[in-house]
Specification:
The structure is a single chain. This protein is an alpha/beta fold and 377 residues long. Helix content is 41%, strand content 13%. It is built from 12 helices and 12 strands. The protein has a 7-stranded mixed β-sheet, with helices on both faces. A 3-stranded antiparallel β-sheet has the order 7-6-10. The chain has a two-stranded antiparallel sheet with strand order 11-12. The two termini are 29 Å apart. The structure holds pyridoxal-5'-phosphate. The site of pyridoxal-5'-phosphate (PLP) has 14 residues, from helix 4 and helix 5.
Length: 377
C-alpha cells in the first residue's frame, strides 16, 4: 500500500539521532519549556528570519501559534480578519479563539493561495488583520498583500503550518508579516512525534506578549501581567524537532525531487499539475493535482484506492460552508468561485521525503491508466 504521508518513515530515517535525543531528555528531569525548547526557538527563528535576532516562541500546536500570534498583534473581539476560505479549518478556529471574526477571501486558481484582489474587496472599517496561508507549501503572493496591508494599516499574520522552508523572492515564508505561525504536527514538513507549534516574529514586543500568553500571562518573575492560558511545548518534542530541523532542507529537496518526477511522469490531458510561482520555492507539503471534470476526482480516488494507493482531499468543503463557520463571504464578494471549484477538483497524491522514485512511478502509472480508460469512452 502507498500512503499519502508517512511520519513513521520519517522517524525511521532519523531514528538513531532521535532516540538519542529523547533519551537525553528523559535523563535530564526537565520535561516542559527547558533548554531543548529554548535552543529550538533560537535556531528555528534564525532559520526563518535568515539571521540571529529573530524571536521564536514554542507553543502547544499550530492552531495555538496562530491564535496567540493574532492576540499578541492586538487582534481581538469585534475585529475582522481576512483569510482564505480554502484552508484548514484550523486557520478559522484560531481567528475565532482570538475573539475575532473570520472574513472569507477567495484564492488564486493556479496557486491555491489567497487572491490579493479579493483581500482588497473584503476590507471593511472593522478589518484588523490578514492571515495569508502558504497552502500546500507554496507561498502566497506576499508583495501585493503587504502593499494592501500597509496602505490600509492591517496586521499580517502568516499561516506557515504547511510551509517550513518555503521561499518567496529569496526570503523565507514567515519572515514577511508581523508574526508567523508554524505547526509541528507529525505530517508537516517539520513534524514532531506529537503536537507542537511556534510563533516566529522579528518584533520583540510581539514575542514578549506571546511568551506571556502561552503560560498564564506570566513574565519571567512569574507574575501575571495579562490573562494568559496554557500552550507550552514539551522538551521531548523540541529535542525531536531539533534533530529534524538539521535535515529539513534535505527533506524538502527530496519532496521537490519527487514533485519533479510526478511532473515528468504524469501524462494526462485534462489533469492539472501544481505550478510553482515564479521566484518562489514550493516545499510540497502536499502534491495536489486537479481533476477539472465533475465527479471524476472521486472516481480517480476510488480507482487508486482499489490499487493500493491512498489519497486525501485537502479540502473537500471550503470553511465558509462548514456548519460551524457558515457565513456569507465578505460584502464585496458575492461568492468564492475559485475556492468552490478547488474543493471539487483537488486530490493530494502520495508525497513525503522517504517516498521512493519507484513509488512515484507506480502512482503515476495508475493515474495515467485511469485517464486512458476515460479517454477511450
Ligand atoms: C496543520 C495546520 C494548522 C494547524 O496546526 P495544528 O498543529 O494541527 O494545530 C493550521 N493551518 C494550516 C494551514 C494547517 O495545515
Amino acid at each position: 500500500m502507498i500512503v499519502p504521508a508517512n511520519p513513521k518513515a520519517q522517524y525511521e530515517s532519523h531514528r538513531t539521532e532521535i532516540d538519542r535525543a529523547i533519551r537525553a531528555v528523559l535523563k535530564s528531569g526537565r520535561y516542559i519549556l527547558g533548554e531543548e525548547v529554548r535552543r529550538l526557538e533560537e535556531s528555528f527563528a534564525a532559520y526563518v528570519g535568515g539571521r540571529a535576532g529573530w524571536h521564536g516562541i514554542g507553543v502547544g500546536n499550530g492552531t495555538e501559534a496562530l491564535h496567540l500570534a493574532l492576540a499578541a498583534c492586538g487582534v481581538g473581539a469585534g475585529d475582522e480578519v481576512i483569510t482564505p476560505s480554502f484552508t484548514s479549518v484550523a486557520t478559522a478556529a484560531a481567528i475565532g479563539m482570538a475573539g475575532a471574526r473570520p472574513v472569507w477571501a477567495d484564492i488564486e486558481p493556479e496557486s491555491f493561495t489567497i487572491d490579493p484582489g479579493s483581500v482588497e474587496r473584503a476590507i471593511t472599517p472593522r478589518t484588523r488583520a490578514v492571515v495569508p496561508v502558504h497552502l500546500y507549501g507554496q507561498p502566497a503572493d506576499m508583495t501585493p498583500i503587504l502593499k494592501i496591508a500597509k496602505r490600509r494599516r492591517l496586521r499580517v499574520i502568516e499561516d506557515c503550518a504547511q510551509a517550513h522552508g518555503a521561499r518567496y523572492k529569496g526570503r523565507s515564508a514567515g519572515s514577511f508579516g508581523d508574526a508567523a505561525a508554524f505547526s509541528f504536527y507529525p505530517t508537516k514538513n517539520l513534524g514532531a512525534l506529537g503536537d507542537g507549534g511556534m510563533v516566529v516574529t522579528r518584533h520583540p514586543e510581539v514575542a514578549r506578549r506571546v511568551r506571556r500568553l502561552r503560560e498564564y500571562g506570566w513574565d519571567a518573575d512569574r507574575i501575571s501581567r495579562c490573562k494568559g492560558g496554557n500552550s507550552r511545548l514539551d522538551e521531548i518534542q523540541a529535542a525531536v524537532l531539533r534533530v529534524k530541523l538539521r535535515h529539513l532542507d534535505r527533506d524538502n529537496a527530496r519532496r521537490a525531487a519527487r514533485a519533479a518526477d510526478y511532473a515528468r511522469l504524469l501524462k494526462c490531458p485534462g489533469l492539472v499539475l501544481p505550478v510553482e510561482r515564479r521566484g518562489c520555492k514550493h516545499v510540497y507539503h502536499l502534491y495536489v493535482i486537479r481533476v477539472p471534470v465533475e465527479g471524476r476526482r472521486d472516481e480517480l480516488r476510488e480507482y487508486l484506492r482499489d490499487r493500493g494507493i491512498e489519497t486525501l482531499v485537502h479540502y473537500p468543503v471550503p470553511v465558509h460552508h462548514q456548519p460551524a463557520y457558515r457565513g456569507r463571504p465578505a460584502a464585496g464578494l458575492k461568492c468564492l468561485p475559485a475556492a468552490e471549484s478547488a474543493a471539487r477538483e483537488v486530490l493530494s497524491i502520495p508525497m513525503y521525503p522517504e517516498l521512493a522514485e519507484r513509488g512515484v512511478r507506480t502512482v503515476a502509472r495508475a493515474i495515467n491508466a485511469f485517464f486512458k480508460t476515460k479517454g477511450d469512452r
